[in-house]
Amino acid sequence: MGDSKFVFLASLLVCSVLQMVWLHGDHPLSKVSIHRATLPLLHLAHIKVSPPILGLQGQTAEWVTLEYSSPIPSIDDWIGVFSPSNFSASACPAENRRVYPPLLCSAPIKYQYANYSNPQYSTTGKGILKLQLINQRSDFSFAMFSGGLSNPKVVAISNKISFANPNAPVYPRLAMGKLWNEMTVTWTSGYGINEAEPLVQWGPKGGDHIHSPAGTLTFTQDSLCGAPARTVGWRDPGFIHTSYLKELWPNRIYEYKIGHRLNNGTYIWSQNYQFRAAPFPGQKSLQRVAIFGDMGKEEVDGSNEYNNFQRASLNTTQQLIQDLENIDIVFHIGDISYANGYLSQWDQFTAQVEPIASAVPYMIASGNHERDWPGTGSFYENMDSGGECGVLAEIMFYIPASNRAKFWYPIDYGMFRFCIADTEHDWREGTEQYKFIEHCLASVDRQKQPWLIFLAHRVLGYSSCICYAEEESFAEPMGRESLQKLWQKYKVDIAIYGHVHNYERTCPIYQNICTSEEKHHYKGTLNGTIHIVAGGAGASLSTFTSLKTKWSIFKDYDHGFVKLTAFDHSNLLFEYKKSRDGKVYDSFKISRDYRDILACTVDSSPRTTLAS
């Protein structure tokens, strides 16, 4: 290997994860001193990966086998995965406190220790490792290091491997459109609009299919707000395409596939998918909704990555997949991928949820790890997004908002009205978002859509998290003060939040007072809103305060998600399921008639009337 090659390989990096002390503290980014990596490569060390070509049958994910050896093995040896294969080893100085060592211009996708599946490696110096790769629009190479994570030395570099078509359309994700009978399909590819036309072939199952065009978006480093997103964590995002499938018949099953028409007239297609169209607003049918926050992603091969603290996300994902026939729509209410500026992880997340998002609408809300960045208009002036400042969330997933930068919108789904708020923008009285929230709550016809649900990322209602107890607010400061009169006036049934990584349910409550002593079967008028924390879908758990809160009915320091099932206009079932086994650990029912919604409750009716 020539001297130029040695210079090229002078400093490679991998990530070692630090657990968060608290979910809103410093990011658990890796601290590998790659700038201290030394050369030369060991003459007898080697690393080889096979097969050289992946996805020959159209697969978007495949396992590869690494064979490696070192003449001076150590338990600290590790292997990094890099894509593109010709990654930069140049040093990049830190721009802010969210950029941790290694100060390198290219971040690895993930890494694993050489002795992970080879307990005798430190004695024999030989090992075999199996890793899963997903199609990410470029080729891959693998680097082997000695010296541990704090003093890495480049030992060997593998051959390059690639998917047969790195540009192929991948990871479709459905979302409701702005109309109830419209479904959108968003996907990622390596084809720009000058190379190919993006389109969807779709139609009713067993019927005629048509082609619908798709729009294309992308972004550059200049679109992002800071490091690591626009520096060490940057990776070309490819192109994001969205097509609008319109005038759908309620509850009908449709088939579709995503693809591209190349300039030479040939087509590139994905596999076939299908979905069920939404019910008509007010339609009586079985309607089932899964809701959770803060899931993130996790590597199925056990390898490590940046922000490596969402160990339960695979459990949640698998439980949702197993129960997918009994789920009609999903709401992921903030803290989506936890990429935090390491852009390759959005590909990893969309690949992980593809079995879900390709089959049912996958609606998202904005969280602090998607949006927050100083000086960019976010309500909280922190660096939790790692410089993404909302760009990735706004482009990678479709939301039916009038302005994607303002992440609030309504969803009508059969007997449900969902009002999705954006806690990373000001929600207080007098703001644009406050007006949206009131309009969303006020404009629903409760005779047709009796189940009114408020969704947001940060806890605006009630939580026993120690983080809020220490502030003596038991929620985001100024949350309830601004919004509880709207929840009460418009008789919101349930408000569900993420952000706090556990599960909790309150009594029906208004102004800190429980309006019912019932815990499992609510009949007639609720007189208050039930508040739910459902932020335990994957990220490290949040601790409860030891203080006793009268309004808290059920707490669980574990990972899970919630599910709503509307049987008809009078009966709703709520369930909390653990991610570890999918079993129900908390539940309640609401049974009532339309007249119960009309009935006056405290602060839900005009204070004076003509009669008075």
Describe this structure in words.
This protein is an alpha+beta fold and 612 residues long. It is 12% helix and 30% strand. The chain has ten helices and 32 strands. The strands form six sheets. Strands 10, 11, 12, 13, 14, 15, 16 and 17 form an eight-stranded antiparallel β-sheet that branches. Strands 21, 22, 23, 24, 25, 26, 28 and 29 form an eight-stranded mixed β-sheet that branches. A hairpin with a 5-residue loop joins strand 12 (196-204) and strand 13. Helix 3 runs parallel beside helix 4 (344-357). It is globular. The N and C termini lie far apart (93 Å). Homodimer. Pfam families: fn3_PAP, Metallophos, Metallophos_C, Pur_ac_phosph_N. Belongs to the metallophosphoesterase superfamily. Purple acid phosphatase family. Residues 47-165 form the Purple acid phosphatase Fn3-like domain. InterPro entries: Calcineurin-like_PHP (IPR004843), Fn3_PAP (IPR040974), Metallo-depent_PP-like (IPR029052), MPP_PAP (IPR041792), PAPs_C (IPR025733), PAPs_N (IPR015914), Purple_acid_Pase-like_N (IPR008963).
